[in-house]
């Protein structure tokens, strides 16, 4: 699987975990140079508190286009630290 934004592969892995239709990529599979920390947080009733990254490619920023659960609830522990995408990031 690849996550692509602005014609650039920003994550790639054969070991994604699919939860609720989203591919979660292992933390080591993202290209850190394309990610900037965000102050955004949201809460999922069964997964816990999500943190976000802005995706940055060629000087363009896609705010909060990636999210992850640094400390998920017990029932979502398999995706701890794994990164998922939205906001125009293509996953294929």
From TrEMBL:
Pfam families referenced in this protein's UniProt entry, alphabetically: NTP_transf_9
InterPro entries in the record: DUF427 (IPR007361), DUF427_sf (IPR038694)
Residues in coiled coil: none
DUF427 domain residues: 1-87
Name of the protein in its database record: DUF427 domain-containing protein
């Amino acid at each position: 699987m690849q996550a692509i934004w602005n014609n650039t592969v920003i994550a790639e892995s054969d070991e994604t975990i699919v939860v609720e239709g989203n591919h979660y990529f292992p933390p080591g599979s993202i290209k850190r140079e394309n990610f900037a920390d965000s102050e955004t947080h949201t809460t999922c009733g069964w997964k816990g508190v999500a943190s976000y990254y802005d995706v940055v490619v060629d000087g363009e920023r896609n705010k909060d286009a990636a999210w992850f659960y640094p400390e998920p609830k017990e029932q979502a522990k398999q995706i701890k630290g794994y990164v998922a995408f939205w906001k125009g990031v293509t996953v294929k």
